[in-house]
């Protein structure tokens, strides 16, 4: 269907793509893989006809329609959402205008027997047939279905596009491309501005689509769900795997091991040949053999190994100081923007060491609540940040907040203190800023490079509560995986706003769903949450009895409040009140014990006190007492949560 033949892309003597060739066939679902800067977006632009290659060709048959969604595009804001999306049906709208025009002529003419009148009847009949054939009868229903699938509400349809953020404008452009139903989709990071529910809708759409798909994405779960073929771009060459992303990684590792063995064998051959040439270079009896082996080396197709495979992005957040047990405590929190109610009577508690994720549709208040916790926004109700909590924040636009006139090295040198200053270049090297890269100005860095630089700044701050708003945007697969591992081993508390399921899986152990100005806690991982959501949407929860639940997903069976008697509800409320008082006492005791331990820490930091062994004994007794109180607090807290769920389920 589309033929890429001997494609070369050069920039100032550097070859980004080196004579690559492949075919896109009608049922292909291709994921383009490779590190940032490998040439994935450039390849999409060339296939879309928006950029010319240095050499080679891309052949797209005339009857093949291509739909291209770039990462960034200029958009016009002069229509409503529905009007802008209707532009996807230009052909249908033109036919409809022709039909309306001819019908008006027919209605106003009286020469019913004339040839001109009969020609008008024939034309309008043919146009009506064409109108139905291209989907004119239900295109407005398709627009509505697509917009709602991408997260818009019906009352958004009549709003001006200028009222929406750049991310929502990109959704409108995506909707237009989906509705045009091209033969080939070219999608460059289509999930960047989508929430989890919209990503799942797009997955389903593309999986069932009859045409071909070529896409770039750093969302591993999305790639696995959609693709059946992976083309890796590495060192200007491509490697074609008939597999989705996860399977491709396995096959790539096998290929890598084979390639490495071949590389080592070739290096040994080259070394032995060069030694032979050097040894017998000036012996006349060996002249023919020396010349032969010299020519062999010149003609040898040398195996290259991707340098990126050997580099590591080692992120290790500094061990944080211990915070209080309760890190964030929200009660009856409400947030309005004028008359617009965003959050209504929110209750939220985050404890030390928890890894919490905020999920839900865009615009439901996830970032708003994060910024309230950071004391960046005004609100109504109660919010308490716990004892000794030090917050580090990574915003969605953190990369854009960097000073563009500073170099990479200067950006980190600004905040580095103490012994860290002697290791700045090592740290930058771990984040793949090596050699001359550290002298680059921020303004010339890519989005991924800026995000990594912003993450270094955060890493160097001694904090015990990380608030991360979409930290994986613009990070490639390897960087995301290493960041995920670093956060999983981080000893402090983490709150992350993200739509990346693969990133959240195994990292977050508590999910807060934002919906209809409320939040709902879901204990467990992201896929447990999504599975429960799917069951709810299919109305399976009501049909399934506890005995039918999978053995590996054992959960507490909660009683429906509607089935409780008055006496039972009264008893639950009584126990909840009792537990609230006990929990409050335990928390006061924990705070007191932690303060005492801090005082002992200061004593032990003074060398003159180290000879007094009683200090260590008293310190150990306090620690044991604290652990016991915390254990009792946890038991009461678990019982409290169960009773609260029984009451509100």
From TrEMBL:
Record PROSITE patterns: ABC_TRANSPORTER_1, ABC_TRANSPORTER_2
According to the entry, every stretch annotated as the ABC transporter domain falls at: 2-260, 328-541
What InterPro entries does this protein's entry cite? AAA+_ATPase, ABC_tran_Xtn, ABC_transporter-like_ATP-bd, ABC_transporter-like_CS, ABCF_ATPase, P-loop_NTPase
The protein's GO terms of the molecular function aspect are:
ATP binding; ATP hydrolysis activity
Q: Which of UniProt's keywords are assigned here?
A: ATP-binding, Coiled coil, Nucleotide-binding, Repeat
Q: Which CDD domains match?
A: ABCF_EF-3
Family annotation (Gene3D superfamilies) = P-loop containing nucleotide triphosphate hydrolases
User: Which chain positions lie within coiled-coil regions?
Assistant: 569-643
- Report the sequence similarity comment from the record: Belongs to the ABC transporter superfamily. ABCF family. YbiT subfamily.
Protein name, as recorded = Probable ATP-binding protein YbiT
Source organism per entry reads: Sunxiuqinia elliptica
């Amino acid at each position: 269907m589309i033929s890429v033949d001997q494609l070369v892309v050069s920039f100032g003597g550097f070859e980004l793509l080196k004579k690559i060739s492949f075919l896109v066939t009608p049922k292909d679902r291709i994921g383009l893989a490779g590190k940032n800067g490998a040439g994935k977006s450039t390849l999409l632009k060339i296939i879309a006809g928006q950029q010319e290659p240095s050499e080679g060709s891309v052949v797209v048959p005339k009857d093949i329609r291509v739909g291209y969604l770039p990462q960034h595009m200029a958009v016009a804001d002069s229509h409503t959402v529905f009007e802008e999306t209707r532009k996807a049906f230009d052909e249908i709208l033109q036919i409809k205008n022709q039909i309306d025009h001819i019908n008006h002529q027919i209605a106003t003419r009286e020469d019913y027997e004339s040839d001109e009148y009969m020609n008008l009847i024939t034309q309008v009949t043919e146009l009506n047939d064409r109108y139905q054939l291209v989907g004119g009868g239900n295109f407005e229903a398709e627009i509505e279905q697509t917009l709602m699938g991408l997260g818009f509400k019906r009352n958004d349809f009549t709003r001006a596009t200028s009222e929406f953020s750049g991310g929502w404008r990109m959704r409108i452009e995506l909707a237009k491309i989906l509705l045009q139903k091209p033969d080939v989709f070219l999608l460059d990071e289509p999930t960047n501005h989508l929430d989890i529910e919209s990503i799942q809708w797009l997955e389903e759409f593309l999986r069932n689509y009859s045409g071909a798909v070529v896409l770039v994405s750093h969302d591993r779960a999305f790639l696995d769900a959609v693709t059946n073929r992976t083309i890796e771009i590495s060192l200007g060459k491509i490697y074609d795997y008939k597999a989705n992303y996860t399977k491709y990684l396995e096959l790539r590792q096998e290929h890598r091991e084979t390639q490495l063995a071949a590389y080592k064998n070739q290096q040994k051959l080259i070394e032995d040949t060069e030694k032979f040439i050097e040894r017998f270079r000036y012996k006349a009896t060996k002249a023919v053999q020396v010349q032969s082996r010299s020519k062999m080396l010149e003609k040898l197709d040398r195996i290259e190994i991707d340098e990126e495979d050997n580099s590591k992005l080692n992120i290790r957040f500094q061990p944080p100081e211990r915070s209080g047990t309760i890190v964030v405590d929200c009660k009856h929190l409400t947030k309005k923007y004028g008359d617009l109610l965003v959050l209504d009577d929110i209750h939220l508690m985050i404890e030390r060491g928890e890894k919490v994720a905020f999920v839900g549709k865009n615009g439901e208040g996830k970032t708003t609540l994060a910024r309230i916790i950071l004391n960046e926004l005004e609100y109504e109700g109660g919010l308490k940040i716990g004892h000794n909590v030090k917050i580090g924040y990574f915003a969605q636009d953190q990369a854009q907040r960097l000073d563009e006139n500073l170099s990479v090295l200067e950006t980190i040198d600004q905040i580095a203190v103490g012994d860290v200053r002697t290791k700045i270049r090592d740290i930058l090297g771990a984040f793949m800023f090596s050699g001359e890269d550290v002298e680059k100005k921020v303004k010339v860095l890519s989005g991924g490079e800026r995000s990594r630089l912003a993450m270094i700044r955060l890493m160097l701050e001694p904090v015990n509560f990380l608030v991360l708003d979409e930290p994986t945007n613009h990070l490639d697969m390897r960087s995301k995986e290493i960041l995920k591992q670093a956060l999983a081993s981080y000893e402090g508390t983490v709150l992350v706003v993200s739509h990346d399921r693969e990133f959240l899986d195994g990292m977050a152990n508590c999910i807060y769903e934002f919906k209809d100005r409320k939040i709902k806690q879901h204990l467990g991982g992201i896929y447990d949450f999504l599975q429960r959501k799917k069951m709810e949407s299919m109305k399976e929860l009501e049909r399934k009895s506890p005995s039918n639940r999978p053995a590996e997903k054992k959960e507490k069976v909660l009683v429906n409040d509607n089935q409780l008697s008055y006496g039972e509800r009264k008893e639950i409320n009584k126990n909840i009140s009792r537990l609230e008082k006990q929990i409050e006492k335990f928390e006061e005791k924990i705070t007191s014990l932690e303060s005492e331990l801090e005082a002992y820490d200061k004593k032990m930091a003074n060398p003159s006190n180290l000879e007094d062994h009683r200090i260590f004994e008293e310190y150990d007794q306090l620690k044991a007492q604290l652990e016991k109180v915390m254990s009792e607090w946890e038991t009461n807290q678990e019982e409290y949560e169960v009773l609260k769920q029984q009451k509100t389920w």
